[in-house]
From TrEMBL:
Domain HTH cro/C1-type, chain residue ranges per copy: 44-98
Protein name: Helix-turn-helix transcriptional regulator
Organism: Streptomyces luteolus
Superkingdom of the source species: Bacteria
Database matches in SUPFAM superfamilies: lambda repressor-like DNA-binding domains
Pfam families listed in its UniProt record: HTH_31, MLTR_LBD
InterPro entries: Cro/C1-type_HTH (IPR001387), Lambda_DNA-bd_dom_sf (IPR010982), MLTR_LBD (IPR041413)
Coiled-coil zones: none
């Protein structure tokens, strides 16, 4: 197996240091905004530092400039839920980014149970019963816990892999066949990275997840670059275009569902996006 080594300074990822990450996240979100985006007059002179000034964020959020400075310098503050909400509005955070900020400030309730490493029998049966639709079950780490035959034929026979490699992100980054599967591979990886960042903040004590991210960041330059961008997005539906080695191009829509009793697990279901893709899926099922 061939992997690419990351040369970026983000190669080491520790268990979440919420204070440091909150500071970095606030800085990146402030720097991406233009005064025009938040209804402020445009500046006459260009600045070396992009985005809003700290005093502009303070004004928009109704906070003191000193408080913003201390937050961005990771000086031990834990903002209240009201402050987090004010910052979210001021920085025009998307819903997933807002949830991420609340996670970093430790204002969302957490599941005290250990993350699942095997599928509960009812969920495993559901995955099988979804045939002929390709389906699989993952935990928040993207570990693949259960899959049906259609998913195995569409992507990969996960049963032939050691458990340590049954991880959707690991396969996309490290497995030679999976690296060539997606036509728009960078978008697929970017969306996966954005999901893992949200999961990382929501599960700060999950050392296994932290170790995974450190592995990806160390061994794959693309992942390291995208991780450093701090995008946050939990993408529950979308489309993917694949180059299948046996039946050619396949376009699928995917839907990601969360079981109410197991909120940290993800049930992913694929459907053909057009008649040609349905024909290709039928060929795989018949094989």
């Amino acid at each position: 197996m061939t992997t690419r080594t990351a040369t970026t300074s983000t190669a080491t990822t520790r268990t979440v240091d919420a204070t440091q990450e909150l500071a970095a996240f606030l800085r990146t979100r402030r720097e991406r905004l233009d005064p025009h985006d938040v209804g402020l007059p445009s500046r006459r002179k260009a600045r070396r530092t992009p985005g809003l000034r700290r005093e502009e964020v303070a004004e928009l959020a109704g906070l003191s400039i000193d408080y913003i400075v201390r937050l961005e310098q990771a000086r031990g503050l834990r903002p209240s839920a009201d402050v987090v909400e004010a910052l979210s509005r001021a920085l025009r955070l998307a819903p997933d980014e807002r949830a991420y900020l609340f996670d970093l400030a430790r204002h969302r309730p957490r599941n005290a149970d250990e993350p699942a490493t095997t599928a509960a029998p009812p969920l495993a049966r559901l995955v099988a019963d979804l045939s002929p639709l390709p389906a699989m079950l993952m935990n928040h780490r993207y570990d693949i816990l259960a899959w049906n035959g259609e998913m195995a034929r569409l992507l990969l026979d996960f049963g032939t892999l050691p458990p340590s490699q049954r991880n959707a992100m690991w396969l996309c980054l490290m497995h030679p066949a999976m690296r060539e599967l997606y036509v728009d591979r960078e978008r697929v990886v970017r969306e996966g990275v954005a999901h893992l960042r949200a999961a990382w903040a929501a599960h700060p004590e999950d050392q296994a997840l932290t170790d995974r991210i450190a592995e990806f960041t160390t061994h794959d330059a693309e992942f390291a670059r995208l991780w450093a961008e701090r995008e946050v997005n939990v993408n529950g539906r979308g489309h993917k275009l694949m180059r299948h080695p046996e039946v050619g191009p396949i376009a699928v829509h995917f839907e990601t569902l969360t079981p109410l009793q197991d909120p940290d697990q993800l049930l992913v279901i694929h459907r053909a996006a057009d008649e040609e893709s349905q024909s290709a899926l039928d060929q795989l099922s018949a094989g």
